[in-house]
Records
---
Amino acid sequence: MVEHTVFTLSQVTQHKSKKDCWLVIDGRVLNVTKFLEDHPGGEEVLLESAGKDATQEFKDIGHSNSAKNLLLKHQVGVLQGYTFKNDADVQVASTEEPTKKEMSAFVIKDDRMPKYAALVEFFVPLVVAGSYFSYRYLTTGSSMV
Ligand code: HEM
């Protein structure tokens, strides 16, 4: 459940230490204290933005969709005066749904090949072996005459 408690920027500014680190991204007030150690970009960059609106910095890095979805996990509220967009904005960015569709389409296409391939695999060696033995039979028979 995403928190919608309203905070002013001066309230956010009070949380700018390593033990209590908040920042704002896209109007979301985020408590990233527990995320500092896990942030793939390092804790330093987060601490530099502590207590501030880091929207521009976050966008400048070109964070992935999974990074954008992670924002919800750390949200403790929203910034006062921000016209808050629907949470679905973040979830729409998820890559999970298209991946599932691509997978099922691939499975359907792939399903036809083995039946056809099995027939070819069965008959081609049979025809080759048959031709070989016919040839041997005919050539051996003619040399004996
Ligand atoms: C709660 C907020 C944030 C989350 C959840 C987050 C998440 C992530 C994730 C998952 C990555 C790995 C790459 C990717 O998937 O895009 C990443 C990389 C990075 N992040 Fe963040 N980030 C946050 C805030 C910030 C802020 C505010 C800054 C800068 C001021 C920043 C700077 C970076 C940098 C420099 C990298 C490394 C990029 C690279 O190696 O190419 N991040 N972050």
---
Amino acid sequence: MNWSDSAWKTIEPIYDKIIEMPFITELMNGALPLEKFQYYMVQDAFYLDHFGRALAIIGARVDKVEDSLAYIKFAEGAIVVEKALHESYFEEFQQYERGKIQPTCHHYGHFLKSTASLDQVEVAMAAVLPCFWIYKRVGDYIYENQKKEGNPYQKWIDTYAGEEFGLITQQAINITDAAAKELTKAQLTKMTEAFKTASHLEYEFWNSAYHLKKWE
Ligand SMILES: Cc1ncc(CO)c(N)n1
């Protein structure tokens, strides 16, 4: 069994909880209050900055040059492509203020950057994997179950359910699995722990948006 298959099994309960979250079901049927989506957009713009830099650090640290190129391209994707989507959303939903980074996003972003900087690079690869994989799975799930007409959040759904995002997700899974083949059991356990922590933080990210959680 690949490392990724066993890792996904450990987070299946978290994924099952995610697709039942009100943020997701309301995004799917278009009923999500604008205020909650705006909070999400603002936080996600901060998140993508941290995520992009974490990917660039992995790109700098990873051994094989082709893997380095892959992570540098993922970093570019996070910073350029997704930010462009966010900026068009900022326009469309009249969100003109950049706002402040709130606790959950702060926690997740710094978890990714510190893992990418200080842990073994394969552990860092495992930490960033749910950002691809959970979004792809959630995007596909929403796409298959959505209310098709007049959903104001269609562009978001199409981005993550799209073929291109699917390809980079698969590429990240494959690279991480190949890297895992060289490791000891103890190192694989650390990878799975990082994968699980990031998956919990994906849940918390949507949860914090639904409840508009801010610093006290
Ligand atoms: C919180 C979060 N995780 C993953 C993605 C997908 O890159 C995103 N845009 N935001």
